[in-house]
Amino acid sequence: MPRKIHLHGVPLQDGTYRKGCEMGPSALRTAQLAETLVSLGHSVADKGNIAPGPLPELTHPNPAVHSLPIIAAWTESIQATAAATPADVFPIFMGGDHSISAGSVSGMALAPSDKPLFVLWLDAHPDFHLLSTTESGNLHGTPVAYFTGQPGFEGYFPPLPRAVDPTRVCMIGLRSVDGAERTGLKAAGITTHDMRRVDETGMAALLSPFLAKVKEAGGRLHVSLDVDFLDPAIAPAVGTTVPGGATFREAHLIMEMLHDSGLVTSLDLVELNPFLDERGKTANLLVDLVASLMGRTVLDRPTRSHK
Fold first, then answer.
1. d(CA 96, CA 100)
2. CB of 118 within 8 A of CB of 219?
3. Does some domain include residue 305?
4. How far apart are the first and last CA of the chain?
5. Residue 306 lies in a domain
6. pTM of structure
7. What is the domain extent for residue 181?
8. How many domains are there within the chain?
9. Residue 104 sits in a domain of what CATH number?
10. 86: burial class by Cβ within 10 Å (0-12, 13-18, 19+)?
11. 3-state secondary structure of 184
């Protein structure tokens, strides 16, 4: 069915030391994300780019943590935008590094709906560090811990009126997990599937039970897609490449299954760094994946040339 889609650019790159993610929204626009969605029968409104508010004065005892004031300001602005999403609108948050999800997911949890929010996290990393446990200090490694209400964010990130229940989060594609995150994930009860599990059972066998859980609960589903979920051979435009990611067909299968489920109500596209891309290869792939999520089938997909 046709959807009313709002595109929100989030040119945020402060969650990491690597520069370039602020160009992600522009790359997705250049790759004709809006035009592709319109061609599938959806109505699309590009709402422009979100901007951070005033920077608070913040410091943290963990000396590794950097860019805390700007990330807190971004999170507040993104959260407010997401929370104001009308019930009949499908928002797509175009990042930006993965710290945008601290605001997009927490905001969608506050959006007007009587349906519980579930999250599908497609990423090589769980991004489940606390402010006190991160060794790199890169805050794109903390959003899941924040929006699931883990301790230590009070007084630093915006207040969290409605945390996402960790048992309603499913991660697929993990292959780089720190020790502190491994302990925290197990304690929180988050469903985690690493790439070995994908190899052993296949994507469909892992995703189907989670979709059934969302459907049984009458829930709505937010999908957060990190470029490094994909194998760097097909998606090189990311500063956190980890070999052994999802293949072209595995990624499209997930999107096609998500479309068939009819459960997805919001989407993040994150960590796209056009500075590292090969003539738009990764941006075009992300647009193709979104098209599969929004109803385009394999036989309808146009052939692209990167010569």
1. 7
2. yes
3. no
4. 35
5. no
6. 0.95
7. 4-300
8. 1
9. 3.40.800.10
10. exposed
11. helix
Tokens 């892992």 belong to residue? 206
**And the tokens for 66?**
């950097």
What residues are annotated to the active site? 98, 123, 125, 127, 140, 226, 228, 271
Residue 257 falls inside a structural domain = yes
* CB contact set of 236 (below 8 Å; sequence gap of 6+): 276, 277, 278, 281, 282
pLDDT 10s per residue in the chain (307 long)? Answer: 899 999 999 999 999 999 999 999 999 999 999 999 999 999 999 999 999 999 999 999 999 999 999 999 999 999 999 999 999 999 999 999 999 999 999 999 999 999 999 999 999 999 999 999 999 999 999 999 999 999 999 999 999 999 999 999 999 999 999 999 999 999 999 999 999 999 999 999 999 999 999 999 999 999 999 999 999 999 999 988 899 999 999 999 999 999 999 999 999 999 999 999 999 999 999 999 999 999 998 655 555 544 4
Residues written for the chain: 307
Instruction: Say which amino acid occupies 116.
Output: P
- Is 271 inside any structural domain? yes
